[in-house]
């Protein structure tokens, strides 16, 4: 068999993909790093500036304001979105046949829809000041004083974007959890039921601890996805009102593509890239460190 | 008896909540189709009301305003091109990693896993810059190549898992019969991982069909736009006075995914959950 897998065959199989991946995902960071050390307008370098772009970035209030927005999104996704989808998955596991079928049919619809459609659906259909569903409902139940221009109010805009984002991935995450739940042997529940445990108790003590692998997968996916969120912002608010809904990535995009400060944008990109890898590493390290034995 | 009653109420509540969420997930469907059939006044004033007529002229108006066949063609080329490229290189790499007894097989796998930890939007500037340097801006390759590169990570991981479940004897038999490694790979191994390929194809297709960040900086040329980008620009266009038209544009361009969603619902769910490697 050794000669069967010749050196040449190995190269033929590995090389095309290796080059594609390395050039676009790994190597492309190198020119970006070089640009981050320059005063660069996207077309040409206007001179070397050393680490000045990094210093400016770290001192810039806009950079930290964008961080606040990004982490507010992340907090809502991790504290509302993920627990919400876990709860839906637990309910799905105990649901009647019809409800189960209907839910499983609908749950993935938000992610097959284009983000442009989802964005506009929320802007025009839900959060619109005059005809949006949210204000219409508030008006019809007599809570007129709660109505507002959700997306042009700097206090509410990030939360509204978070709602749209959570809505889009809630169903998918719940089905991922549900897949994990179904791999847990049924005897565990029977034992718990005999001991008199209800839905809540069985879930907390049996289901959730056994879901660590799925949890890790969903957490990493949700964290990386939320940190890297750009499309929803670009489509729903373009960072507005003012700068109120700029996330770190949007700030990066804005600096590079709207004001032509590519060197500065590259500095933001690289700092933020390190941040994303750091969080993925933390989750990988600390969630489900030891596999639980059945 | 009391216990049973409680359980039944619990189930009704649970089922009710699930169905409410199912309706919430499907809301855009009603929104876009009802909007697309309304006249100007109703579309602007009552987007959620039941249409007061069937104003199909919205569709022809939208059709005239944006070049929908061209958009569909562009999106198809970007997505299908990236899909074919991604799967072809991924299946070869996965085969090499799992079967070819390479020294650093595991390091290779780890290397490609990095792709899963990098959000594609962070790479907007690096990829933009690279595409400029390679001189492929304005061509279909400007999106096909990065899309394929960024979806490789998950494809490789999943196909690797699949290869591992295939017994080595299959290849040994082929080798004894005198097949070389390329022949064995194409006529025996690839057909055996077909389920994994179909699953990944669906995932990669959905991801890239809806990708917006890279498209928004690389495919701005009028003829080169993908659907998400064109829709976004359409919404922001000068003074659109008829929201019914907007609804029609959204409905037409979403129709391909809606149809696929309706008929391949089970497969999409399996793909989604299977690609996580949880099954």
UniProtKB/TrEMBL annotation, chain A:
Swiss-Prot/TrEMBL keywords: Cell membrane, Membrane, Sugar transport, Transmembrane, Transmembrane helix, Transport
Signal peptide: none
Spans traversing the lipid bilayer: 12-37, 71-90, 102-127, 156-179, 217-236, 262-282
A biological process from GO: transmembrane transport
Domain ABC transmembrane type-1: 67-283
GO CC annotation terms, alphabetical: plasma membrane
Membrane topology: Multi-pass membrane protein
InterPro entries per the UniProt record, alphabetical: MetI-like, MetI-like_sf, UgpAE/MalFG_permease
Main subcellular location of this protein, as a coarse class: membrane
Subcellular location: Cell membrane
Family in the record: Belongs to the binding-protein-dependent transport system permease family.
UniProt-listed PANTHER family: BLL4140 PROTEIN (PTHR43227), DIACETYLCHITOBIOSE UPTAKE SYSTEM PERMEASE PROTEIN DASB (PTHR43227:SF8)
Protein's recorded name: Multiple sugar transport system permease protein/raffinose/stachyose/melibiose transport system permease protein
Naturally occurring in which organism (per UniProt): Faecalicatena orotica
TrEMBL record, chain B:
Alphabetical UniProt keywords: Cell membrane, Membrane, Transmembrane, Transmembrane helix, Transport
Localization, UniProt: Cell membrane
SUPFAM superfamilies: MetI-like
Assigned GO CC terms: plasma membrane
Parts of the chain that traverse the membrane: 12-33, 76-98, 110-128, 140-163, 184-206, 246-264
Pfam family for this entry, one: BPD_transp_1
Major site of localization recorded for this protein: membrane
N-terminal signal peptide: none
Highest taxon, organism lineage: Bacteria
Domain ABC transmembrane type-1, residue spans: 72-264
Membrane topology recorded in Swiss-Prot or TrEMBL: Multi-pass membrane protein
One GO term (biological process): transmembrane transport
InterPro entries given in the database record: MetI-like, MetI-like_sf
Family statement: Belongs to the binding-protein-dependent transport system permease family.
Name of protein: Carbohydrate ABC transporter membrane protein 2 (CUT1 family)
């Amino acid at each position: 068999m050794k000669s069967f897998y010749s050196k040449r065959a190995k190269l033929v199989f590995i090389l095309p993909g290796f080059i594609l991946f390395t050039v676009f995902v790994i190597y492309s960071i190198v020119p970006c790093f070089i640009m981050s050390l320059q005063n660069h307008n996207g077309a040409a370098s206007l001179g070397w500036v050393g680490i000045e772009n990094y210093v400016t970035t770290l001192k810039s209030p806009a950079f930290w304001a964008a961080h606040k927005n990004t982490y507010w999104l992340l907090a809502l996704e991790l504290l509302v979105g993920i627990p919400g989808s876990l709860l839906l998955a637990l309910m799905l596991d105990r649901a009647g046949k019809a409800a189960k079928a209907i839910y499983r049919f609908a749950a993935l619809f938000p992610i097959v829809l284009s983000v442009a459609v989802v964005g506009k659906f929320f802007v025009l259909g839900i959060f619109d000041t005059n005809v949006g569903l949210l204000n219409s409902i508030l008006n019809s139940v007599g809570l007129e004083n709660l109505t507002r221009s959700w997306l042009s109010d700097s206090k509410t805009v990030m939360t509204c974007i978070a709602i749209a984002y959570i809505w889009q991935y809630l169903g998918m995450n719940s089905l991922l959890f549900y897949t994990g739940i179904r791999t847990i042997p049924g005897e565990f529940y029977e034992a718990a039921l005999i001991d008199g445990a209800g839905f809540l108790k069985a879930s907390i003590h049996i289901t959730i601890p056994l879901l660590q692998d799925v949890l890790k997968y969903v957490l990493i996916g949700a964290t990386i996805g939320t940190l890297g969120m750009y499309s929803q912002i670009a489509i729903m608010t373009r960072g507005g009102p003012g700068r109120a809904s700029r996330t770190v990535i949007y700030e990066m995009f804005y600096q590079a593509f709207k004001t032509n400060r590519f060197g500065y944008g590259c500095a933001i990109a690289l700092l933020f890239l390190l941040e994303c890898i750091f969080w993925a590493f933390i989750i990988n390290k600390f969630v489900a460190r030891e596999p639980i034995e059945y | 008896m009391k216990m049973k009653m409680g359980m039944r109420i619990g189930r009704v509540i649970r089922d009710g909540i699930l169905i409410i969420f199912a309706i919430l997930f499907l809301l855009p469907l009603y929104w876009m189709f009802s909007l697309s059939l309304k006249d100007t006044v109703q579309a602007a004033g009552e987007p959620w009301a039941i249409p007061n007529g069937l104003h199909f002229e919205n569709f022809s108006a939208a059709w005239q305003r944006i070049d929908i066949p061209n958009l569909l063609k562009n999106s198809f080329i970007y997505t299908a091109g990236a899909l074919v490229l991604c799967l072809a290189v991924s299946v070869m790499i996965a085969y090499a990693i799992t079967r070819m007894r390479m020294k650093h097989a595991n390091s290779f796998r780890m290397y490609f896993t990095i792709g899963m930890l990098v959000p594609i939007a962070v790479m907007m500037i690096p990829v933009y810059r690279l595409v400029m340097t390679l001189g492929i801006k304005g061509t279909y390759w400007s999106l096909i190549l990065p899309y394929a590169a960024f979806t490789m990570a998950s494809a490789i991981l999943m196909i690797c898992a699949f290869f591992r479940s295939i017994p080595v004897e299959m290849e040994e038999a082929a080798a004894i019969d005198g097949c070389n490694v390329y022949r064995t790979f194409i006529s025996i191994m690839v057909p055996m991982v077909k389920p994994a390929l179909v699953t990944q194809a669906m995932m990669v297709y959905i991801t890239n069909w809806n990708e917006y960040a890279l498209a928004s900086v690389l495919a701005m040329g009028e003829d080169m736009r993908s659907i998400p980008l064109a829709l976004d620009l359409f919404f922001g266009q000068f003074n659109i006075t008829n929201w019914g038209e907007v609804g029609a544009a959204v409905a037409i361009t979403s129709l391909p995914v809606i149809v696929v969603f309706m008929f391949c619902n089970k497969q999409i769910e399996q793909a989604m959950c299977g690609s996580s490697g949880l099954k």
